[in-house]
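User: I'm curious whether this sequence folds into something compact or stays loose and floppy. Could you predict its structure so I can see for myself?
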Amino acid sequence: MTARTQQFDPPLKLNRPIHRYTLEQYLEKERKSIYKHEFIDGQIIKMPYAKGPHNIIAVNMMTQMVIGLENADKNYIVFPSDQKVYFPSIDAGVYADALAVCEEPLYWDDNQLLLINPILVVEVLSKSTQKYDRIGKFDKYKTLESFKEYVMIRQDECYAEVWYRESPGRWHETIVTDMKGELPLQSVGISISMERIYRNVELNLK
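Assistant: Here's the prediction. I'll summarize afterward.
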């Protein structure tokens, strides 16, 4: 009896082509969806759920921005996390946790869905999104001519990081970790108490 073994090559793994949507298709699907999605490189990407502390900080920040800007020398308009921001040069769209525009909001579309002129953007960091918020999302915001200031706030400890554009390509970083400190927002000429930002949030105190 002769025993014989035969080696078979493993089956080829066929990479399925990625389906890419147009901006119009994205907006139509987003209109019907109960979830939020970002629009990146023709793909529709579901956003992760936000925890309670994340939402409280976002609302606190937005509220303090509205209060602080009431008597500003210019008309600043504050938007909540439901506002889409669009980047025409890279055909992408995202949501911020809070943002502000100066004088008048400008939109890419006639339906006033895609904002293109934020001056200040706030993101509340989470473990699942902080790398993207720090690098990928920041780079997207930089493509907008109006964009001057980026604020990132941690939800589990007293920590806020502000990047302010002093001139084209030159950004100044400020980090605030003292609960008695003030978060400077140079683009709109106000500062916000860290205690107000973290009001009703239980932090991991070291």
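Summary: DSSP finds four helices and 13 strands in the chain. Confidence is low (pLDDT under 50) at residues 1-6.
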